[in-house]
Design a protein that fits this description.
2 copies of one chain form a homodimer.
Chain A lengths: L9 H15 L7 E2 L2 H8 L3 H13 L3 E4 L3 E4 L14 E3 L11 E11 L2 H6 L7 E11 L2 E11 L8 H6 L4 H9 L5 E9 L3 H7 L7 E10 L3 E10 L4 E7 L1
Antiparallel strand pairs in A: 1-3, 2-3, 4-11, 5-6, 6-7, 7-10, 8-9, 9-10
Helix pairs in contact in A: 1-3, 2-3
The structure holds a DNA duplex (19 and 19 nucleotides).
Chain lengths: 244, 244
DNA sequence: CAGTGGTCTAGACCACTGG
DNA sequence: CAGTGGTCTAGACCACTGC
């Protein structure tokens, strides 16, 4: 066993090392990481210790175990849940009844971060950010209006064309084109009335109550990488949440 | 090791046995369960196997581990989070700035279950249920209006007086007085406008958008035991959610 | 069949709690 | 100090995958 640099359980240190490799891109989303036995040999610890480290990574959805095959870097694409962070489901409860969302990019431009956006993204006011506005519709009914802000530097080269041309979840584009993996997010939810522009885009009156969902998504080490403000219509869909 | 009755991992069987004892009330909320070594001896398995079973129970918040002291049956009282299933927090983010909620029982009566209530509680339409309406206020501002339905049989003897006189979370009353522990819940969230009665109780206009939160809470073995329909004001509070 | 993750064991030792 | 949960090891065997 290796010496103890700081004081924390060995498996936590192993977990941190694996996270480091993950962040450095040593293994890419969808790819397998080395087997437990290999990792145990590399880190000079027992397989059980590596196992416990990977257990935690799997519990945090950072990695996915598949018996008989290996352990894989989690990804927002290929995942049987199409949108991992979207909790709006049709009232029917049938997740597939909607089919794929029809996506429309309304706007996409670079600008300087306002104070609130900067704070959410751990930037300074005035730093370059990318702002995107889009609408998701199901069966022709506009249901979600999203404004999102991304830090300019990591997302250099992202344009409306890249967004429009991309098949699949936006987060999977972030992964493959910019190496940014969203790992965790927190949401603040309110009930609001839309302004005129919002109402028009969602094709509702401005007296229609909507769900306001403000999400901050983080990559590794809790670094915030996206601020997203969504307006959800809840006449045919609802926000579903599980409490443990 | 004991023989294998059905085919599932040993630790899953142990987990089921512990759950059974928990449900039977062998150990009550807040009390310690036997030590891992004792349980290992009782079930004739190794400590590691008991450990894995308890690990899962702890992950599901059914049990709480405390190093050096033991493993305890989780409870909705005594918990440092006062309301485990209430995700509405003040915008300040300071969970304590509100202080304890001021609770008012508006109504409490027994009646026959309507079809939707019966379905949610796995009862038959017309079965006896208890209906409660109450308001929670913070700093004198009514913020939450809740209607809740409980199956009549397990909650025989529950009256408005019992509710009014109880200090602490309602779920902890359910635990100590009726032996019903809520273990898991699911919520459906929408944005709505209140009707006249609702608006009056929350002291808002009927054009004020509110969060509608429908919760079904389950006890052991996923048995639904409560239907709760809440209306939340989100002008000073918001619903906070973590996504993994 | 070999290689992967999944289960189970037995035992050693550590860290924390309380009397 | 004894008793608890927490970590770590080494090794055996099982279950699943794909060649």
């Amino acid at each position: 066993m290796s010496p103890t640099p700081s004081f924390s359980p060995l498996y936590q240190q192993i977990k941190a090392l694996i996270l480091q490799s993950l962040q450095a891109g040593e293994w890419k989303p969808g790819e397998p990481i080395p087997s437990e036995i290999e990792l145990a040999a590399r880190f000079r610890v027992s397989q059980g210790t590596v196992r416990k480290a990977i257990d935690e990574l799997a519990a945090e959805n950072i990695v996915v175990r598949r018996q008989g095959k290996g352990t894989f870097v989690a990804t927002h694409a290929e995942q049987h849940v199409q949108y991992r962070f979207l909790k709006l489901v049709p009232d029917s409860g049938d997740l597939d009844s909607d089919g794929p969302a029809e996506r429309t990019i309304v706007d996409c431009k670079r600008l300087r971060a306002a104070a609130d956006v900067a704070r959410a993204l751990s930037l300074r006011t005035g730093d370059a950010v990318l702002q995107v506005r889009r609408v998701l519709a199901y069966h022709g009914v506009p249901t979600i209006l999203e404004d999102l802000w991304l830090p300019g530097t990591p997302f250099k080269g992202l344009t409306a064309e890249r967004l429009t041309g991309w098949r699949g979840p936006m987060y999977s584009l972030f992964e493959t084109e910019f190496g940014v993996r969203m790992v965790r997010a927190e949401e603040k939810i309110r009930a609001v009335l839309p302004d005129t522009a919002q109402a028009a885009l969602l094709q509702v009156t401005n007296a229609t109550p909507l769900l306001s969902v403000e999400r901050v998504a983080h990559t590794y080490h809790d670094t915030p990488m996206e601020l997203r403000r969504g307006l959800y219509r809840t006449d045919t869909h609802h926000y579903r949440n599980e409490l443990g």
